[in-house]
Amino acid sequence: MSDEEDLEDFEPDQDDLEREDDEKETEEWDEDRKEEEDFLEEWMPTPLMEDMMKEGLSLLCKTGNGLAHAYVKLEVKERELTDIYLLRSYIHLRYVDVSENHLTDLSPLNYLTHLLWLKADGNRLRSAQLNELPYLQVASFAYNQITDTEGISHPRLGTLNLKGNNIHMVTGLDPQKLISLHTLELRGNQLESTLGINLPKLKNLFLAQNMLKKVEGLENLTNLTTLHLRDNQIETLSGFSEKMKSLQYINLRGNMVTSLRELTKLRNLPKLRALVLLDNPCADESDYRQEALVQMAHLERLDKEFFEEEDRAEATEIRQRLKEEQEQETDPDHDTELDQPSM
Fold first, then answer.
1. What percent of the chain stands above pLDDT 90?
2. Which of the two ends of the chain, N or C, has the fewest CB atoms closer than 10 A to its terminal CB?
3. Phi, psi (5° rounding) for residue 249?
């Protein structure tokens, strides 16, 4: 996992492939979780031991004043661990992977004040709460049983992954503390609202596979470039603001947008270049692509296809004709032949 995900030059086609891979991954995790639940009573307490530490440690680096050395990377995946208390003593660790275990408590990580990177996917966690870790840049808690977003306040955290959990509402994400967060992954939760994501530094927001019916409370995301809302229950495109001046790509595939008139609500997004509306009722309309370009002249791609120059020329003519008709309707001095008295 990279701590510098730059999605400004986002390729939607590639994203669709990645989403499909993620869907397969979700199914695999669900199957694994079911198996774990079936055999939960058979789990034995399995604490992290010194022999596991020796096997999992790597990356020897200087520490402190540079006169001492310590291993700073630990990988203990798939060890059926239920306890990582031993980590309290390994204060120099910077990279920790404890994914695919049976952990319910990550509090020993509070002692790792040099931690830069954490992956704790596929455990039994109900919370992602930790003490403030001053250098933590990447944290992944995917496919756990987390129910809220409280207690996440790391000042250098850039990427936060909470996909595949049981979160219904985003709360506790303080923009004054999460001053570096640029990528937030909340796909595959139970979100019913986009309220609570007031993080002005955010660039990439993934909200696919939730229970959203509309977009709200995202007006202050002035740096947001990528917004994924695939496979929700969205019917209206209200909630997009001209303040979202950096937004370039919106994925609304698999929602419930019925009317093409909803596209007028995206006019005020000055940098919107790519829009995905496949598998919405409105995408079945015969003039679907033309109407989209009429409403959003700066749009470069709809779904997987770029607009051609002839498409743009036709949309410009339609736009001009509509403008003239509107001007005529609003001109109080305009008289039609029907208004003239007969001689």
1. 72
2. C
3. -140, 125
Burial environment of residue 214 by CB neighbours within 10 A (0 to 12, 13 to 18, 19 or more): middle
Q: Where are the alpha helices (DSSP H) in the chain?
A: 12-38, 50-56, 288-295, 309-330
**Size (the chain), residues:** 343
Would you say 190 and 169 are in contact if contact means Cβ atoms under 8 Å apart? no
Q: Please identify which residue in the block is written with the tokens 């503390």.
A: 177
Distance CA 10, CA 301 (A): 12
Distance CA 168, CA 150 (A): 12
Whole-prediction pTM:
0.85
Q: CA 161 to CA 224: how far, in whole Å?
A: 17
Ramachandran angles phi, psi of 61, nearest 5° = -135, 160
Q: Tell which wins on pLDDT, 16 or 75.
A: 75
Residue 172: which of 189, 195, 143 has the closest Cα?
195
Q: Which residues have CB under 8 Å from 253's CB, separation 6+?
A: 230, 231, 276, 277, 278, 279, 280
- Report d(CA 214, CA 135) in Å as an integer: 35
E strands, 98-172, in order: 117-119, 138-140, 159-161
For the chain, give every domain's residue range: 75-328
pLDDT mean over 166-173: 97
Both tokens assigned to 193: 């609202």
What digits encode the pLDDT tens for the residues 203-240?
A: 999 999 999 999 999 999 999 999 999 999 999 999 99
DSSP 278: T
Contact status, residue 136 vs residue 118, Cβ threshold 8 Å: yes
Q: Does domain 75-328 have CATH number 3.40.50.920?
A: no
